[in-house]
Amino acid sequence: MQTYWCEHAWLPSGVAEAVEITVGSGRIVAVETGQPSTGEVLAGLTVPGFANAHSHAFHRALRGRTRGDSFWSWREGMYELAERLTPDSYLKLARATYAEMAVAGVSAVGEFHYLHHGPGGRPYADPNAMGEALIQAAREAGIRLTLLDTCYLAGGIGVEPNETQRRFSDGDATAWQDRVRALKADDNTVIGAAIHSVRAVPRDQLSLVDNGGPLHVHLSEQPAENEQCLAAYGVTPTRLLHEAGALHARTSAVHATHLTAEDISILGSTGTTSCFCPTTEADLADGIGPARELADAGSPLSLGSDQHAIIDPLEEARRLEHHDRLRTGQRGRFTGGELLTALTNHQSLGWGLAGAIMPGAAADLVTINMDTVRTAGAAPSQILLAASAADLARVIVGGETIAKNGVHTRLGNVGALLAEAITEVYE
Fold it and tell me: Is residue 77's pLDDT more than 90?
């Protein structure tokens, strides 16, 4: 057993002082408030580990290297990067990227994985070599992985995949199912599924993309997606997915930016999670989605770092609030508790017993320093509007300390790991 004494801790009931947390076998055994200082002291505010609900690990190599004036021109650079990767280089890049997440407080990541095959779409000897690289990378970086193996079949509605997109495609949804069945879950890995988008999966195959676990989908990220869907099918992407039975409590709609009132109602009534990635949505000029309206309609919220222009879950939470302020001209769109719930939505990744400081939950703890230049003077209940990843003193995942003051306890200097992995990709 390990005992931690927290100066402040954010419990399901709110922020409490002098909290003793007992940990055993990777789980929280007991939580008691108002306790004298015993065990290891965690000075500052301790919160549950963060869930990064949407990641494309290989996009990390694009940071500081993008070009173009729109999402679509950015995508061309992303395709060029995808062409360079092999299972070995992907392992190194993903391990460094997940290590960066670990030092930023992430205890579980949802990897929206569509880079499956070799150049030209030729399968590797192990058809899941790229997915296995991600599984190994997450384990070595010390965070849990939900591998959202993505069905990506077309280059657009009625359009054949281009040369790069053939690396993503299995040909049809039945072949996708056959490949995904060979992936095995373990104590650090959940195997889920993803529909890349209604542009990339034909209407008659949408219902085949589900393996009973978490199901994610890019939804209405760009107006062009809506326009193409309306032209081809006469309905919005949300309505199309709903008619295919793809929207339910296991589903996460990623971005959910350009929605109609009916779309919002459908997502809420089906209990579909809406996953916002504010730093990416800003970087790619995607737009600002109706987060408050979705939450009010019954759609739980989650947060992701997507293309990793920034890896800082606290920044994603802050921008969720600030973007909604900009969109509506009103402050206080979300309470601190609502922002923390979005930050720690492990349920959307299939990790039900995580994301809260309570007995039985995974022992995932993040301690935020309260005396840095950013956080000094802030009330603990408002720390999410002040702190950044640079303010984290300790990150504990499953009872193991993974990071201290920005240094990964297993892998050391994450900046050096990233530099080496990215340099290798571009050489």
Answer: no
